[in-house]
């Protein structure tokens, strides 16, 4: 095959890619029309039975075209997830009469950090224009939102590999901001370098403490490497780009590294294959969540010191059929041996069962606060089988 033939084939592929993008945009527009219809009819966003039948039919039709069933399933699961989240966003905007089409969003680090990628993804779903506000510390993000210098703050709260981010939980104890959203970002840590080099030549690696923790098994293969902590992965990328030496590297995302002219030397480094960070979205004003979408409510409470106090509180949730998805404890600063409990539940704050549970919890706890109710972004994929 000569070069002209190869170029012609690549041009045809590029033309098809553009058509695919156009079709995806057309499909999303139709999904928004479906959402508007559901607003009028008060029907739930998800129809699991229809999604399963759709995937079955697409797998069958794909096999007639010699397309692997797993490939078709995975592709359309992503498309369905985008459709569900896009429809959820439209319903939320309608319910809360949100007419602002631009917003200032604060996040950790300069451009290219994982928090920046999360802010961009959330902003693209809800706003036409986003003004990005990078911060050096988690506390700075909260302060910007509290003082009105940003409408929203994006904070990482937990990672599937390294667990909870305690500093963020501690900040939630002392702020009057409300949780209004969540977003999950798949994390693909990479070794990022400036120019040509190889792993054996690297001497110093820069990153935020979290990636070092999450990639400990890979990093253990290189005991000669020295680790330098930065405020964020983006700050590490910026440092490596400025140094421009073959002996330094950063741990961070490939997307972020590209913004700084860095190349990926090695990727997929996390100890766990499925490495996902969950971010929360904070705002000064709480929101209502339509009952047409799955909702989460986050509580913070302090129980008494008597034996079984926490169990008694959790039994209230069980009695009302409320599913708890996360329980975290953090010390109460200034009160030795006392703890504050953070609880995520799958329930809409406006529901009857949640209101009954809150009244019962208030009667048996020393303090109870609802941090926020927000749409759940956890769109579980449907299996066609």
UniProtKB/TrEMBL annotation:
Q: What is its main location?
A: cytoplasm
Role: Catalyzes the Claisen rearrangement of chorismate to prephenate and the decarboxylation/dehydration of prephenate to phenylpyruvate.
Q: What is an example of a Pfam family matching this protein?
A: CM_2
Protein known as: Bifunctional chorismate mutase/prephenate dehydratase
Q: Which gene is this protein's source?
A: pheA
A cellular component term from Gene Ontology for this protein is: cytoplasm
Annotated site (Essential for prephenate dehydratase activity), which positions? 277
Taking every annotated instance into account, which residue ranges of this chain make up the domain Chorismate mutase? 1-91
